[in-house]
Amino acid sequence: MTATSAGGGSGARAGRGARLRAAIAAVSGTVDRLSEVSRAKYQNPYAALSWPDSVDPGADWFFTPEITSLHGTPHQPEPDSEEFRRFAFLEASNFFSLNIHGEKALMEGLASRLYRSDLLEISDYLHHFLDEENKHSVYFGGFCRRYGTLYRSRNIPFPAEGDRSVADVLFFAKALLFEEHADAYNVHQARDERLHPLARFINQAHHADETRHLVFNRAIVQALWDTHAPEWDAATRDEVRDRIGQFFVTTWREYYNPDVYADLGLADPWQAAEDAWNAPSQRAHRRNYSDRCLRFLLSTGILQKEPADAF
Amino acid sequence: MPSDVDQVRNWVTARARDLPPGGLTDDLPLWEGRHLTSLHLPELILLLERLRRRPVDVEELTAGDFRDITTIAATFLDTDATATERTTAP
Q: Which InterPro entries does this one have (chain B) (predicted)?
């Protein structure tokens, strides 16, 4: 992004820095409370879970069948069949893999913001955020490497460019989207008594920490937007909104992974991914699972319309 | 049936920001000109994999591989875009 704000001199930058510090201070009570809870709920991922020697993907459910990416599409396996359970296991591997890739990018962005002068007030919590993301990846990676497949990501982390205020808003907005969607899956699956206890445990453990992250993400995104957006020109605000809308597409696309469909044995996995993406039942599912996140972004004025391409 | 390169052209035309008045050309710098961003890449890679019917080695990619339509066609579709005129309307 190029020229982003009216008046880019050192005085303007100092003014923005002061306003951001004030906005951060306004949410510091929330952040302090989240830090206290993180310390109270501190968990050792190497002791909290005993990994079974093996699992049986054809016999047990590892992913809720109704929220698999082929559910309600012509490619869906026979209900309650061994093939469907095998597919659900592949979907669990994909879900854990996309979480690993998302958390890796999140950890990089959090680490780069630790102890930045204008974000000092939240550095304590950034430590917890980083620590908890790393622990989640221990669970997800442990599952994929022991029993399943670590699927690749098609997200390419080319260097970010442009104004720091824009990069901050986009980074935390992306974190918000990624985590709110994953958490919706966690909540659903942690409660699903059909699932293997290991799958339920990982979903529950992730959700337990994510509840704090979701509160933090919303607070920091709102603070950053309220601080920076009024100073951007209209073209910059439009571009930031476009990019946040595109986050919905990139976030959701990873749930429809042709590599999973190839492992399931489908003859044309890329066409299956396209068919599933366009299936009315899947569009409705995505809109439903994005609802809370969309309502937040629309009610705060960060988005002015729904991202049509995602649903 | 549109050619593979036409499908890429159509995809880019539908998503690119601020295309010049003359529209998309095969040598238009898609990233330098900020017409596409890295957020478009996962979808573009899925399209390219579907067209060539084999995976793209994502870990080896650089931004230069997606510089313009000509480069994308040569890198991922083994096609000389200059030899394939647009056969469908965008």
A: ACP-like_sf
Phi, psi of A65 (to 5 degrees): -60, -35
Number of domains in chain A: 1
Task: Please determine, for residue B25, whether its predicted confidence score (pLDDT) is greater than 70.
Answer: yes
Q: Beta partners for A232?
A: A5
pLDDT tens, residue by residue, A260-296? 999 999 999 999 999 999 999 999 999 999 999 999 9
Is position A240 within any domain? Answer: yes
Average pLDDT over residues A44-70: 96
Element of type H or E holding A31 = helix A28-40
Q: Residue A7 falls within a domain, yes or no?
A: no
CB A24 within 8 A of CB A122: yes
- Interface residues of chain A, partner chain B, Cβ below 8 Å: 1-2, 152-158, 239, 242-243, 246-247, 249-250, 253-254, 258-259, 268, 270-271, 273-274
> The domain that contains A207 carries what CATH number?
1.10.620.20
Residue A37 falls inside a structural domain? yes
A277 backbone dihedrals φ, ψ, rounded to 5°: -55, -40
**Chain B residue at shortest CA distance from A257:** B46
Domains of chain B (ranges, CATH numbers):
4-83 (1.10.1200.10)
- CB contacts, 8 Å: A239 with chain B: 17
Q: Within a domain: residue A1?
A: no
